Amino acid sequence: MTHAFSSLDELGEGPGFRKVRSALGVTAFGVNGVVYPAGHPGIHHYHDTQDELYFVHSGTARVEVEGEERILGPGGLFHVESTTPRRIANVGDGDLVMLVVGGKGGYVERDGHVMSDEDLELRQRLGTGVGSTEPDKSGGAGSAGAGAGKERS
What we know:
Elements (H helix, E strand, L loop, with lengths): L15 E3 L1 H5 L5 E7 L14 E8 L2 E5 L2 E5 L4 E4 L5 E5 L5 E8 L8 E2 L3 H9 L24 E2 L2
Antiparallel strand pairs: 1-2, 2-8, 3-6, 3-8, 4-5, 4-7, 9-10
């Protein structure tokens, strides 16, 4: 299968883990939806080899890691290396809904390709803010200028 669609609602209901990877046939990395009810204290844990990236979809998370505590709301991101103990708790009044992506083995270099000159133009105009992955418009080395057809991922 080359693609699959679903939603967290289709993968389960109530508190708990939503097994996104198996449901959608993802093999390149681990990925789960996690729903914590209000007041859930979180699970203090670490991994042997898998780094994790947490994305807060909705709700309010308290992240505890290495003596630091941070509150994250919708759109919040948290990355942690595998062996670093962490705890993510729900400190909001409603459900905390997160997408958690895990993996090991490192970054795959820029390997995205646009499908047309129109797509290249759209990509070059998109995202000019801090942290943007917008390709260099100068056409210099490493750019996605005319003919390059690559984007950062």
